Amino acid sequence: MAIWLWDDGEEAGPLAESLAMREEDGARRMALSGRIDTQAAAALWARLMAEARKPGAPLLIDLAGVEAVDTTGATLLLTAQSAAQGSRIEGASPGVVAVLDRVRDALAAPRPAVVARRFAPLSGLGRRVVGALNGGVEALAFLGETLVVALGTLIRPGRLRVRELLRHLDEAGTRAFGLAALLGALLGVILAFQSAIPLRQFGAEIFVPSLVGISLLRELGPLMAGVVLAGRTGSAYAAELGTMTVNEEVAALRIMGIDPMALLVLPRVLAGVLVMPVLSLLLTLAGLAGMALIMQLLGFQLNTVAQQLVNFVSLKDLLGGLFKASVFGLAIAIIGCRAGMGAGRGPRAVGDAATSAVVGGIVAIVVLDGIFAVLFERLGL
């Protein structure tokens, strides 16, 4: 096993063949041999620097027996040389000398200036505002481009890829039916239970069907369907288009003279608009079924529940909810496609695009739902 030996014969470690110190012609000669790599330098550093800093005779670092050094070993040798006044390195092979010269030049190069971080909340706020405005302008431009492509497709229906539209209808709608039905049934059960508890104190449990029915038709049905669409479909749109953007497939389509808005974006947007009313209706019906089950458990007959729904729920509630669902689907699809088409470069681009699509879609449907609530109240709907 290879070892280091100090001048006192102490065994220092198994990382090099030898390290010996001896006095010679009024100088201290430090003879090294073997390979001085990162592992060896880590073990040698403390002892070599202690020897280099000892006052007295100058230090001669003899590298005649050194086979090779890496940048860490060269840094150790040069640091030891600079620490000992009047020291020098000798006996190194041409390869070792070349490494020492490169590391010496690197150590002598000026260090990059350290830029102090300034606490500037006003400029940071300004950058965020400008970034948000630029993002809003880009989103508005994307919306306008989508509208132009949709109007152009009305004039030339052949531009629409029907097969692609059917595929997205299946992925966004048919495959989400199970999740929408399960979520709606659980929502109806929860609403019925939670509504019956306070109404029971006033003997008004009979009004639970009307409360749950109006809530599902006007608000919760479209809103929860929008959450399902944003989580499943909006993120899928962003991930798929983001991958194509990162792989420069979208740029290749433009080079070939194919409009990616008509080929990639329009079928997805149409699928989102068409599938959302169906998902909302399915979720609402499943919620009403769950509510009816709870009412039966509470001792009410199905015909009583149906009569309450007929008395308090009108057609305008259903149509208003389906209209809101269509607008939610349009917003979610456009936000998802915009996030995918605007994806950046790098390994995080697709993940960031999917996250932006989900967050943006949920925020958009909540804001739109608030706008619709105020608008419908003002219009008396």
Description:
The chain contains twelve helices and four strands, in the order ββαβαβαααααααααα. A four-stranded mixed beta sheet has the order 1-2-3-4. The chain has helices at residues 38-52, 71-83, 94-108, 121-155, 162-172, 177-200, 208-246, 249-255, 260-297, 302-312, 315-341, 349-379; strands at residues 18-24, 27-36, 59-69, 88-90. The chain is of the alpha/beta class. The protein folds into two domains: 18-108, STAS domain (Transcription Regulator spoIIAA); 155-379, no CATH class. A hairpin with a 2-residue loop joins β1 and β2. Helix content is 70%, strand content 8%. α1 (38-52) packs parallel to α2, α7 (208-246) runs antiparallel to α9 and α7 runs parallel beside α11 (315-341). This is ABC transporter permease. Keywords: Membrane, Transmembrane, Transmembrane helix. InterPro entries: MlaB-like_STAS (IPR058548), Permease_MalE (IPR030802), STAS_dom (IPR002645), STAS_dom_sf (IPR036513). The chain crosses the membrane at residues 137-155, 175-194, 278-298, 318-341, 353-376. Pfam families: MlaE, STAS_2.
DSSP E strands, number: 4
What count of helical segments does DSSP give?
A: 12
- Radius of gyration from CA coordinates: 37 Å
Structural class: alpha/beta
Strand fraction: 5-15%
Query: What is the helical fraction, as a range of percent?
Result: 55-70%
Shape field = elongated
Mean pLDDT: 83
Strand order of the largest sheet: 1-2-3-4
H/E series: EEHEHEHHHHHHHHHH
Largest sheet: 4 strands, mixed
Total domains? 2
> Gap between N and C termini, in Å?
91 Å
Low-confidence stretches: 1-17
